[in-house]
Amino acid sequence: MLINPGCQFASDNTAGICPEAMSALIKANDDSAKPYGEDPWSKQATDLIRDLFEADCDVFFTFNGTAANALALSAMCQSHHSILAHEWSHVETDECGAPEFFCKGSKILLIAGNDGRIDGTKVSETAISRTDVHFPKARAVSVTQSTEVGTVYDLETLQGIGESARKHELHYHMDGARFANAMATLQVAPSEVTWKRGVDVLCLGGTKNGMAVGDCVVFFNRELGQEFDYRCKQAGQLASKMRFLSAPWVGMLTDEAWLKNAGHANQMAKLLSSGLEKLGIRIAAPVESNAVFADFSVEQTVSLRERGWIFYEFDGIATPRLMCSWKTTPEEVDAFLTDCRETLPEQNNGPHH
Ligand SMILES: *Cc1c(COP(=O)(O)O)cnc(C)c1O
After folding, report:
1. Which one of 23, 96, 165, 321 is least enclosed by Cβ atoms within 10 Å?
2. Which domain holds residue 219?
3. What confidence score (pLDDT) does residue 24 get?
4. How far apart are CA 183 and CA 190, in angstroms?
5. Do 60 and 169 lie in a common domain?
């Protein structure tokens, strides 16, 4: 029984703008303000991000995560360098080559790893696998937190990657499009997950967390952020009405809306996955944030789509992927589970037919 057509579990960016981000936008619209980040909202958002990470970091607001990632990596790598990343990473599979383009040719070296994660050992192995002049020189490692398959790196693994990075002189990049979801799971200070583990640059996602638009690039290693404002401008990422990118961050970071939104999405994913498991449907990746990979049969997938549910397959795991957002409701989860029960293949083949 479909109760919310058009939205559901396709992605966490199908949801709209959360009230906290919206009211900040509306407030930012009250008065005129200086352009290009010279406005009070951008200053306040930057201060809040510095407070959040307990660090004197540099912060740049971009329109989306692809730009944030690609530009952050371009601040680390020259054209003859390489970037180590998981084979399912967004920078590899979903950015149309933007990192390679903005790095002017840097190669992404792919690392396989269970449940979307890499580790320090694999980083070291890959970094030293080729060190001759005929192959691009390893210069950066990129991790996604939480990962493309909804798993979350623990502090120990992040630390291990940081140690390998230091040993092999790699800069450490974190794609945090869903950083909030990881934080809601780990329940530690954001500094513990980032610069204390050696992370140089975090791309902090706002869009999937409940904002209209806008991710930001946080340089803990401020040297890497030198002249980054020029990179942003050149790439078309310097908003003239910057306050409409930055004000929502003020809304999100005041009273921890960012964490509440993410915690709610994660909770909905748990509700969904435990319901599916009760129906005997295998969950194909550990549910540690807001993604659920459900191993529906092909017939059931078709039936669910016929009933109007929208969700996508994911390349790496090859099962349908169900994403929960700040806006997913328990009623929506229940309605989906009801349809899952009614479309179970066993019922079609059962003795009553
Ligand atoms: C959504 C997402 C991004 C950013 O994508 P944009 O569409 O460019 O905003 C980056 N990394 C991951 C892992 C994502 O899921």
Report:
1. 96
2. 19-255
3. 98
4. 7
5. yes
